Each structure stands twice: as C-alpha cells, then as structure tokens.
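REVIEWER CHECKLIST
Item 1: Sequence provided? yes
Item 2: Single chain? yes
Item 3: Sequence as submitted:
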Amino acid sequence: MTSVLVVDDDPDVCDLVRYKLEQSGFDVRRACDGDQALREVDAEIPDLVLLDIMMPGMSGLEVLERWRANGATEKLPVIMLTAKAQENDVERGFELGADDYVIKPFSPRELARRV
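Item 4: Structure as written out by the authors:
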C-alpha cells in the first residue's frame, strides 16, 4: 500500500486529507509540525509527503531543504499543500525541490488525483 505523510498544523485539513486518501486506498500518517515531520521520515520514509509551509517552529520550506540535502530523502516526492499562493511562494517551493504545489482551499478529489 502506498504511504503518504500529511504534514500540517491544522487538524481539520489533516482529517479531510486522510479521509479522502484512505478512501482511495492510501496508508496515511500525520505530523503536526516540521520537527515531527523530520522524525516521522527518519523512522520510516513514506512514498509521498504532503507538506504545509506555514507551521509553528520550522516551516515546510525548511523541512524540504533538509530533505533535499539528505541523500536518503533527496528524491522523496513532496507536494506542497499550502495557502501561500503568491507567484514567488510557488516559485520558491519549486526552487527548493517540491514536485508539485497545491493551494488551499483545494478540492479533495483533485488532491487525490495528484497524489
């Protein structure tokens, strides 16, 4: 089963994403912030990460930078899932190595298709 790690400090977003992806046959784990995301991936690398940018403590962009600098996670597929919708935000995400960028609010059905 394909594993997805959802990293977001909003429990409602996590619940919505988890529900839709589990309906589609994915195994879904959750992390509430950047530090927990790093620990989760260190413990078990998922097949894909959905990563928010604005979180308490370490931002999603900082987490992405760390993963891209680590040989074990440099190719980990990451979709940014964020309210940061300015063109420069999107460009920055791709510059740091994001594989896709989904802007909140999002369609759960569309998100499941992208995953």
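Item 5: Key structural point noted by reviewer: The chain has one domain: 3-114.
Item 6: Recommendation: ____
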